Structure formats: structure tokens, C-alpha cells
Amino acid sequence: MNSTTAAASPPLIAHPFATTFVAWSSVAFGIISLGVIGHKAFVDFSKLRLGCLAMGALIMCVDILNTLRIGSLISETNWATIRATLTILFVDLMMAITLNVGQRFYIKGEHVNSLYKISIAATVMTNVMTVISIILQNLLAVIKLGSVFDGISRLMWPVTVAFAYWYAFHPVINMKSGIEKRPSAVVAIGVW
């Protein structure tokens, strides 16, 4: 929760019209972008494009919720719960996309390594912290402790995604030797 406002109070904004205009412009741009991504995903289908489309839809949800929050059309408690839920979905989807892309850079059978396991473990920990924060803040009304878990999960998700990227691009970064044993995609990306 925002420490400067009560749960039922609206957020303080300096220029209501300008802020609202910019926020809704962001929503409009997001809808256009989502349409372009969706068109490409359906015309030339791939799992990566479908994942990007789903990520775009999640980001649009957050964008709309943030815009509604400016006008106090959604309470801060509901906003925080929905944001936390969308964060879980975002992290899980980002992990699935990144790990899927990363598997292509490994020799068949070598893609499950310690970085892969750390990425999965970090994702599970982030999800657990977020769920605990939702339960504490909403079901048990323990706001302060729930905020601690919420803060931990907000700090953990970028680290989780960083581990996934490390896993995905480790073969490209670590191309010192053994190029002949690497898949051609690794060599191509490494050269690029």
C-alpha cells in the first residue's frame, strides 16, 4: 500500500487533466501495439510471438488499472491485489518464454543445468512471497507484515528474470571453446 494515502483515498496528482490524458494516451498506444503484435502472432505463429502477445495483454491490464487508479475508480487494496496477481503471471510467463528460448542454445539433453534449476527455484520463491503477501494483506488484514513480503517479492522478480536471462544466454556468453559442439544458433548469435 502507498504510505501517503489511506486505503480509500485517491492518489494525489498535480495536474489531473494532463496526467489523465497522458495515462489514457499510454493505454491507446498499448492497444495499438497489442494489435500489431497480435496480428503478427496469428499471421506467422510461433510460441515466442504468442508469449509476447500474452505479455502485452498483461501489461495492458496493468496500464488500464494504473489509469483507473488515477481517478480513484479502483480502491488501493483491490489495485494492490490485482497488481500482485498480475506480477505472478508476468514473472511466470517471462520465465517460460526465456527458458524456452534458452533451451535452443544448449546441446540436446544439456539444457537442464544448475542455472535452469536456480531460475525455477527463484520463480517459485517469488510466487510464494507474492501469494503470502496477498494472503496477509487481504485475508488476514496484517498489512505491515504483508507489505514486507510484497517488498521482498518486488525485489525478487527482477533477480528471478536475471537468472533466466543468464541461463538463456550463458552458451552465447561462454563460447570460449567448443564451438563445434554448440548448436548453430549459438554460433550465429555469438558472431552477431
Automatic annotation (TrEMBL):
Query: What are the alphabetically sorted keywords of the record?
Result: Membrane, Transmembrane, Transmembrane helix
The lineage's top-level taxon is Eukaryota
Transmembrane annotation, as ranges: 12-36, 48-68, 80-102, 114-135, 155-173
Name of this chain's protein: Uncharacterized protein
* Species whose genome carries this gene: Jimgerdemannia flammicorona
